[in-house]
Design brief:
Elements (H helix, E strand, L loop, with lengths): L1 H41 L21 H6 L26 H7 L3 H7 L15 H10 L2
Helix pairs in contact: 3-4
Length: 139
């Protein structure tokens, strides 16, 4: 009878060890996570949640004199600084959307999407940069 009791105890022990091991590892992980959060808060760190109530930075006010001063710099420009309407184009040569706005690469316009297919190619998109240049050139 004692052999059966010993056999049952060892069988029960073999079944409980993996479960106890998993529970122990889980508790250790939980304690580690909580400890790290307490440490971060103690150092003045932030928690995992972010504050979404921050206001967007206010744009800087730019005077017309600053815009007119751009004509005195070594920039690609056209038109006259004393015009009633002044356009200043700021673009990035590596930006595909800046190239699309220039309207000089119809295949790129079509490649980006049907909404950018130029009118001359059967689409509905009018590139703004050439249109602005027409306005400036016409006075």
């Amino acid at each position: 009878m004692s052999e059966v009791l010993v056999k049952n105890k060892s069988s029960l022990f073999e079944k409980l060890v993996p479960a106890l091991l998993i529970i122990t590892i889980g508790l250790a992980f939980l304690v580690g996570v909580l400890w790290q959060k307490v440490e971060n808060l103690g150092k003045g760190g932030t928690t995992a949640t972010t504050d979404t109530t921050q206001q967007a930075p206010q744009p800087k006010k730019i005077a017309i004199s600053q815009i007119k001063d751009l004509f005195n710099k070594d920039l690609v420009k056209f038109g006259d600084e004393n015009s009633k309407v002044i356009f200043v184009e700021v673009s990035d040569p590596s930006c595909p959307y800046c190239h699309v706005a220039g309207g000089l690469n119809p295949s790129l316009n079509s490649q980006i999407g049907p909404q950018f297919k130029l009118v001359k190619d059967g689409g509905t998109y009018i590139a703004p940069v050439p249109e602005m240049k027409k306005l400036v050139d016409s006075g």
